Request: fold
Amino acid sequence: MVKEAIDCIDAGTEYCPCKLAEYGQCLICSQCQGQVFCDCLNWKGVCIYQELHNNGYKAKEGRKTFDCNVEEVINYNNNLIIIKFKAPHKLVLDLVKPGSYIFIRTDDNHYFDIPISIMNSDIENDIISIAVEIRGIKTAKLLDTKANENIVIRGPYWNGVFGIKNILAQNNSKALILARGIGLAPMMPVIRKLLSQNNELNAVLDKDPFNINFATELLDKYKIKTSENSLLYKGQLSDHAKVIIKDALEDGVTFIHIAGADILTYYVINYLNEINRNDVALSCCNNFKMCCGEGICGACTSRFSGHRVKRFCKEQADPRNIFEGRRFI
Amino acid sequence: MKVIIIGGGWSGCAAAISSKKAGADVTVIEKTDLLLGLGNVGGIMRNNGRFTASEELIALGCGDLIEITDRISTHRNIDFPGHKHATLYNVNMIEGEVSKYLKSLGINLLMESRVNDINFDGQKIKGVYLSDGTYIDGDVFIETTGTTGPMGNCLRYGNGCSMCVLRCPSFGPRISISERCGVSDIQGERGDDILGAFSGSCKLAKESLSDEIRNELNSKGVVILKIPQEDINYDKLSTKVCQQYALKEFAENIILLDTGHAKLMTTYYPLYKLRKIKGLENAKYVDPYAGSKGNSIRYLSVAPRTNDLKVTGVDNLFCAGEKSGLFVGHTEAICTGTLAGHNAVKLAMGMPLLILPSSIAIGDIITFANESSLTREGRKARYTFAGSVYFDRMQALSLYTTDIDEIKKRIQKVNLDNIFNQKIC
Reply:
C-alpha cells in the first residue's frame, strides 16, 4: 500500500509549475493531478498548486535559448569533440550541480536539438565545457563548430544523474567512481560535489571506446586517486572491476557512482546483489533518450510494473529503481 | 507496548498522557517546533458546557491538561456575548508548560519531525516514515493530525495560505494517515456547497491597540467595539468553524478577548477596515500573519470512526481531535484525545474498548457527532460543548451543569471515576 514518493527534479525551481501541472499531470502534487485535496507525499518546500494558482493556472515560462560564444574547440579524430563556450553567469551557476545538462541547437529544425551533459561549469570565468561523442546525424553537425562563432543552447536541465539524493548524503566518507567512455564528462560535476562534501574519492576510468582520457586536464586539478582499467569485458562486468569493487568495499566505501552505459550500471547492481551489499548507495548516469526535456514528448518514458509510466527527463530515481519492474512494452 | 501519536496538538498531547498513564511507551511525532498546534493561538476554556466537560475529565482521572490551562489562565469566570464563565489561558505561556509536563511523564517527543508515509499491510499499520527517511515502528497508532491545511487545501477552499501557526510553508504539509490506509476522509461542509470552514479567530498584538483598549482588556478580559454600519457583514458568519461564535453580536461588534494577545473573534478582517475603529488605528495581526486576507481552512480530513475512536477499516489506528469529528475547541480535543490514548492501550492488551456512556457530556458528544456526520445537514454543523447545536442538546438533556459535586456523582454512578488513571499494562 505504500505509494512510491515520486521525486521531480524541477519541483520548486523557477520552472515549476511546468506544462505537466498546467494539464493536470504534475508528478508530485495531487491538486495538480485533478484531485481536490492535498496528498503531499514528497513536499519540496513549495506548494506547487499555489504557484500554479498565482500564475493564472498556466505553466511558468520555461527554459530559454541562449546564443553563446565558443571559446575553444578540441577535436579528437572526429570521434570526440570538446567545446568550451562562454555563457551568462546565471546559467553557469545553474549548471554546476551534478546531473546538469543542456540542449544544443544546431538547426532551425528543433528535432536536431542534442541533449549534452555538462563536463565543467567554471563559475569564475563563466565558461562551460562539454564533451560530445560523435555518433549520428545530430552530433555530426557539431563537427562544424568553430571557435569565436556562436552556438545556441537551451537550458538549464538537471536530471542527467540518478541518485542525486545519495550524492548529497555523502559527507566525510569514502566513495568509488566507475566511469567509462563518454561517461567521464558527466562524472566531473559529481566529483566536484563529492569533494566539496569532504569525501575521499577513488576514480577508476575505462577510456574505451576512446584511446585518450579526455578528462585528464580537469582531473589533474582535483588531485584525486585515479587509475585506468577495463570495466567491461565481452559485455559483462570485467573481473578487474569486480576486484576493484570488492577491495573498495573492504576499504570502507559505502557509495559508488557509475558513470557509463546502463549495462555497466546494471551489472554493478547485480554484482552488489550477488555479494549481498545492497546497502551500498549508488548514483549513475541517466541514459534515457531526451528530446524535449520538459516531460511532454515521451522520448524518455519507460513503463514499469503497475502500469506506471515514468518520465525520466523530470523524475529522479534511485539507480536500483530504474531497472526493477521495468516492462518491455 | 509502543503507542505512536502523529500530531502534537491538544488531542495528541491528551492521548499521550492517557496512554502513558495506562502504561504504554509513548512517542509523539510533531511536524512543527511547538506542541499544541492551534492551542498556541486559542485560549478559551470552560465557557458554557465546556465547564461540565472539563470537570468530567477531572473526575475521570485525566484532568492534567485542564489543571495546566487553569493554572496559567489570565482571566477566570468572564462572560462575553453568548458565553458564560469562560477561562482564558495565556497562549504565550501554554506550550512551554505542556511540553515540560509531557517530558516529566517520560513521553518521547519528536519535534520538527513530519510523517510523510506509512507502512500498511492492508489491515494494520506497521510503522510510519518521516520526511527524512527515518522509519518508526509501533503497536498502535493514534492520528491527531487535525484537518487543517496544507497550503493547497487552504487555497482551494479558502483564500490561500494566511501564514497561520501551523506554518506549512516552513514545516511542510500534513498528510492524512487514515486516507493513506485507503480509508476515505469525511469533509465538513459549509452553507454554499463548499467544503471546509475558516478558522474562527485572529490575534492582534496587544501593544498595537490604544492604551484605553489594552487596559480594559487586561483588567476585564473582554472588550466589545462597534463595527461601522457599512462594514457589517452577516454572511461571513456562515463560513466560520466556530458556530458557537457565529452570533449576530459577533457580526455587529469586534469582540476582543485577552489571551495574551488580543483575540479577535472573526475569521479574517481587512486591516484597513479594522483600523477605522477607534483605538485600533495601529492594529497589527500576529496570527494569522495575513489575517487581512484569510484564515486556515479546516474540516477537510475527518476519519470515519466508531465511538471508541478507532478508525473504521484499520485494525490499529485511533483518531482524536478534529480528525475524529467536526469538533471545535481545545476541550473537545482533550476529551477525544484522552479516550483515544486510553483505548489504544486497551486494544494492544486485547481488552474490550471503552465507550463513554451518553449519560455524561463527553460520551454524548462523541456519539452524537458520529451519528450526525452521516447526514449532509450534520456535516454542516460543528460540535462543541460551548454553543451551537450541541450546547442546545446539552441543556435539553440536562447534561449541562456547573455543579462540580453533581458531575462527580454522575461519573461515579457509571463506575468510571478515575478510570484514566489506572495502569493497564
Q: What stands out?
A: Chain A touches chain B at residues 1-3, 5, 29-31, 36-43, 46-50, 53 (CB under 8 Å). The first helix of chain A runs from residue 19 to 22.
